[in-house]
TrEMBL record:
It comes from Fusibacter ferrireducens. PROSITE patterns: GGDEF, HD_GYP, PAC. Residues 89-141 form the PAC domain. This is Diguanylate cyclase. Transmembrane segments: none annotated. Residues 291-418 form the GGDEF domain. It comes from the Bacteria. Residues 410-595 form the HD-GYP domain.
Amino acid sequence: MARLPDVISMDLQEAYDIIKQTNLVIFKWTMSGDIPTDFVSDNISIFGYKPEDFYTGALKDYWAFVYESDREKIQNLFYDLSEQNLSHFKNQYRIVCKDGEVRWVEECVIHERDSSGQLIHKKGILRDIHDAVLISEKLKESEAKYKELFDNASAIIFTFNKQGEITNYNKTFVETLRIKNSSENHLIEDFLTPYYRDHSLFTECVQKVGTRFELEIIDLEGQKKFVELNYRIVYEAGEPSVVHAVGQDITVRKLATEKVDFLTSHDALTGLHNRTYFDQKLLAYREDEEKPVSIIIGDVNGLKMVNDAFGHKLGDELLVRMALIFKSVFYAPKDVIARLSGDEFAIITERRHIEALIDRIHEKCNAVVDFPFKIDISLGYSSRRKSNVDIEGIFREADHQMYKNKLKTSKHIKATMIQTLQQKLSEESFETVEHTERIKILSEKIGKYLNLSETSMEELDLTAIMHDIGMISIPKEILNKRGKLTPKEMKEVMKHAEIGYHLLVATPNLAGIGDYVLAHHENYDGTGYPQGLSGGDIPLISRIISVADAYEAMTNVRNYRAVKTHRQAVDEILHLSGTRYDPSVVHAFLKSIEK
């Protein structure tokens, strides 16, 4: 039983009785020795003890009541606070119950000092807060788990208020927006495109509450991104106050969709619109017959020759360059530029003075000097100036005009390209003008001995000049290599006969000699290339060029072999007569050079 004074007032007794009904324990300690307990209330029974246990029992030293792990810390705090001029303080620690259970208590202490300020007593109230501490720890644990989930969620999580201030965000938000210093304060407007800077995102969210929408943002490195946003509005005093937002970065998906949409209506190579889009626009003009409109059709000249001579990569570059020229001339919002097929383009425009615009296209083509040939395009156009004119008819007329112009210029353009290719081949390899001229002279001698007709002699001359035109497509480092070619390099060189054939048949005035050029590396016994022809199946002109080219090559400087004398070259040709060379042509060759 707690030792109460023998005479206490009725009010104090009632107050004490009330305290006995609570979980509060009253203590009084005397500041002497081991700080013995001077008084402890009967409520100490909530921990399984009696007051007498603190007066004479094992707990006479109060520190034995304090849980061992907390004891040193509480002792130090107790003595530190005793030295300070405090009237009261509060702290928390654990105690050991009679049955060994460890529980949390909160201690509120009042210092009682004498007239000199010396501390003589401490009076305290001990309150069992164990359940509250456990709940608090669970809340902290729960909060820590929530914080971990919040920070490490793959979704973008952030909150912002009516003023646009970002009040909270997770790691994914930091990574997505490329925020280097996460302690900096940011406004949501810092990451928005101009539209949402002019139109408050907060207002937009309030107006679209209950929906999700795509938000275009810009990270701190200037990269545009797309976020699919879900959110809720937090209200204060009935007014929207804060937006809690969860977003998913859909940039990859969005760009993929945009790419698919782009490719649906655009040409992948040039970036111009495609045939499908062009036809849709034509349909719109068919339905609106009052609009004046012009259609221009263009066909790139010599694209096949470029592909054959230089490869499709340069052919593609030609198409891209042509597209850029179109874009530089037809830039009005309503202009539609489309690539209809491989080398065919079309333009729909409401602009006037079409002939002047076409002249500008040709001027820009002529201004291109970084291609190995002059680029050119045949163009035709037709316009609708009156209503009720069939739009398909306008298209057909433009197409017809284009083909008329192409017929006028195609031969000249292709001939010019062949001359350009010859010049380029002469500059980059052993195929000099002198080389081809010597082959031509020698071929003419053989042809005259064989009594070829005048027409055949003309074809022989052209073949002599053009026989190696296909070499233009062979890499320069192979053409000028010193020493023997590898099998792989030889395979590349062997392509030149077919390439030369394709170049020539695409040129109307040279198409007739294409077969001769194709066969000038066929062997009489059928072991040559590219078709493996033999005997009389090889055109006679090809057989003549084969002998003349061999003699010319052997008796003149080549990177891959030493020069042979006239006698050595003749002996080798005689040795291969009947296998590589036609014996009758070899005989004519020998007779012609005797003279």
